[in-house]
Amino acid sequence: MSPSLFAHRSFWMPPQSSTAAEGIDWSFMFIYWLSVGFFALIVGLMALFVYKFKRKQGVEPPKSPSHNLKIEVAWTVLPLFIVFYLFYIGFEGFASNYVAPSNSYPITAHGKKWNWTFYYPNSYNDGVLHVPLDTPVEVKMTSLDVIHSLFIPAFRVKKDVIPARYTSLWFKATELGEFNLFCAEYCGQQHSDMITKVIVHPPLEAGKDVLVEKERLADSPLPEYEIPYEVWLATASDIFRNVESGKETLADVGRTLYEKRGCAQCHSIDGTEGASSGKKGPSFKGNFGETFSLSKGGDQVVVDENYLLESMKDPSMKVRNGFENIMPVISSQFREEREYHAIIEFIKSLNGVETISGQPAADSGEETSESEAASEETNNTEE
After folding, report:
1. What positions does the domain Cytochrome oxidase subunit II transmembrane region profile occupy (predicted)?
2. N or C: which terminus of the chain carries fewer CB neighbours within 10 A?
3. Pick the residue with more confidence: 3 or 225?
C-alpha cells in the first residue's frame, strides 16, 4: 500500500493546510488501515474456522493442542514491533509539533465565554486570528474564565486553554484562505457559538513599502486573505482612519468593534433578549434612554452614555435586574478611549438617537477650548 494513500486519503478531515497536517493524517490513516487489515484477518479466520471445524454428525473432534510455542512467540513479538512503530511515529509527531521554532511569530490568545481575542505584536487585538503564509506562528493562550480548547481542524492543531496559566501551540500555514476555529471544550450554554476564523495572508513582497501598499489597497475589492499580512495589520490597527477622512462615523467604527471585540456573543442588535435571542446580556437596541432597576439594591438607573461607559469599564458595578453578573472585564481589549465612545455611538444609532460623526466629546472639548481661546484673542485684538 503506497504512502500516498495514507497521506492524502483523509476522508473524514478537511484539506491539509499546515505543515503538521500531512504527518498527522499519515499516522491516522496508517493506524486506520492497519486496524482494517487486522479486523479483516481475524474475522475472516474466525469465520473460516467456524465453518471448517463445526460439529459434524458421526465425527469425533480431534484433541486440541495445549499450546504452540512458535505461534505464541509470533503473535507476541510481531504485534510488539508494530506497537513500537506506532509509538515511534506518535512520539515523533508529538515532539515536532510541541516545541515551536525559535523564529516563530508571536500571538497571544484570550478565551472567554464565548469568544476569542487575539493580541498581535503591535498591541492590536482582533476577534479573528490573522497569520502570514509559510511562517511559523506560536499562539500563547490563557482563559479568563473556564477551560476552553482552541481547535483549527484544517491545521490539525488543538490545545486546551486554561484559567490562570498559559499553554501554547504552533503551526505553519501552507494555504491562503479562511479556515474555521472552534472551541473544542464544553464551556457553557453558548459553547457552540464560540466560533471564529483563521485568515491566512500572503507576506508583503520584498522591496514594497507597507504604507504605500496600505494606501494603494485602501479601497481594494480583493478578498481579505489576498491582502499582504503586513498591510492588513497596519490597516486594521488604524481603525479610526476612515473617521478622520470623513468616510465613516464613530457609530460605523462601533459596529466594527461590536463584531471584533466579542460583544455579539452576548448582546443582540435587534432588540431581542433572554431565551428568545440566545444571548446572555441586554440588547444594544431598545434600551438607551430607558430606566431600569439594578439587581443589587433595586436602585433605578438611566441607560445613558455614562452608564454605558461605566458598564464597559467595570461590568459588575451596576448589573441590570434580570441579568447575570457574567460579563468579564474587557478593558484590555481596548487600545484607546475612543473605542469606548465608538461603541456608545453605535448603541445610540441603533436606538434612533442622534450621534456624533467625528471625535468623541472629550476630544471635541479640547477643540472647543482652542476655538474659544482663538476667539478671545481676536476680540482682544479688535479692542
Report:
1. 3-101
2. C
3. 225
Q: How far apart are CA 234 and CA 124, in angstroms?
A: 9
Confidence check: pLDDT of 59 > 60? yes
Q: Output the DSSP codes for 204-219.
A: PPTT--HHHHHHHTTT
Write down the pLDDT at residue 122. 87
- When pLDDT is averaged across residues 222-251 and rounded to a whole number, the result is 82
Asked if the model's pLDDT at residue 382 lies above 60, the reply is: no
Cell of 240: 479610526
How confident is the prediction for the chain on average, in pLDDT? Answer: 83
Q: Where does the pLDDT of residue 181 fall: very low under 50, low under 70, confident under 90, or very high at 90 and above?
A: very high
Provide the edge-to-edge strand list for the sheet that holds 136-143: 125-126, 115-119, 105-112, 136-143, 167-172
What is the per-residue burial (b if ≥16 Cβ within 10 Å, else e) of 369-379? eeeeeeeeeee
Element (H, E) at 367: helix 361-382
**How many residues in the chain?**
383
Q: How many CB atoms lie within 10 A of CB 2?
A: 7
Question: Does residue 360 surpass a pLDDT of 50?
Answer: no
How do strand 177-183 and strand 300-302 relate by DSSP bridges? unpaired
Q: Of 129, 111, 125, 117, whose CA–CA distance to 183 is shortest?
A: 111
For the segment 231-256, the average pLDDT, to the nearest whole number, is 80
* Under 8 Å between Cβ of 289 and 331: no
Q: On the CB side of 214, how many CA atoms lie within 13 Å of its CA?
A: 15
Please name the amino acid found at residue 230: E
Closest CA to 152 of 133, 134, 176, 129: 129
pLDDT digits (tens, 9 = 90+) for 27-44: 888 999 999 999 999 999
- C-alpha–C-alpha distance, residues 315 and 308, integer Å: 9
Which span out of 22-26, 59-63, 137-141, 369-373 was modeled with the highest average pLDDT? 137-141
On the question of a common fold for 105-238 and 250-351, the answer reads no
Domain ranges of the chain: 105-238, 250-351
Q: Is 34 in contact with 78 (CB distance < 8 Å)? A: no
Q: 105-238 adopts what CATH topology? A: Immunoglobulin-like (2.60.40)
Superfamily for the 250-351 domain? Cytochrome c-like domain (1.10.760.10)
